[in-house]
Design a protein that fits this description.
Radius of gyration: 17 Å
Strand order of the largest sheet: 1-4-3-5
Organism: Daphoenositta chrysoptera
GO molecular function, one term: xylosyl alpha-1,3-xylosyltransferase activity
InterPro entries: Glyco_trans_8, Nucleotide-diphossugar_trans, XXLT1
Order of helices and strands: HHEEHEHHEHHHHEEHE
Structural class: alpha/beta
Helix content: 25-40%
Protein name: XXLT1 xylosyltransferase
Largest sheet: 4 strands, mixed
Number of domains: 1
Distance between the termini: 28 Å
GO cellular component, one term: endoplasmic reticulum membrane
Shape: globular
Number of helices: 10
Length: 227
Amino acid sequence: CQVIVHDVNELTEKLFPIVEAMQKHFSAGSGTYYSDSIFFLSVAMHRIMPKEITRIIQVDLDLKYKTNIRDLFDEFDDFPEGAVIGIAREMQPVYRHTFWQYRRENPQTKVGEPPPDGLPGFNSGVLLLNLEAMRQSKLYNQLLEPTMVQKLTEKYHFKGHLGDQDFFTIVGMEHPELFHVLDCTWNRQLCTWWRDHGYSDVFDQYFHCEGEVKIYHGNCNTPIPED
């Protein structure tokens, strides 16, 4: 087993010029903070990792594994043609909230609606990055261009604060074919913040997840069940 440690400052230096434009749309702070670039690492991982690295799983720290993570690698084999990233749906109505203006102007839209038929957005706690496919996808690389990011955020009246997750979500509204959607059991989010902040009536439609949980995600500091 070989472990390679990467210098955060070095990575940020490479990342910043690629993701600078999107930071103002998807960062919590106002403006663009150099250090915030690291929250967009997954978006441009294919540009900064050596070419011989073709696949990466990127995970948050607030996870608990109930199965061998090697099984998650098998999901790469299920990517449909054209897909570059494996990611699970967001399990709270956060994007129902964020897209409120677009939803009001487009009452028939699936944007922000709950599964199985809606587009609830994505959660980036567990990510499968097919770096080779990301490098080869003309569409994906076009979407990283500042003009394209601007175009999408304007179309959807979008201002987010969740970094890479916001980028993947807004791209997924426009180009779902770029994503292989992981089952909720691979990223069973536990945060219930939005249930108590105006969305109790629809919350369970987003939060519901059937099946044996493979990875628990204790997002927003939520305790993870003991074995």
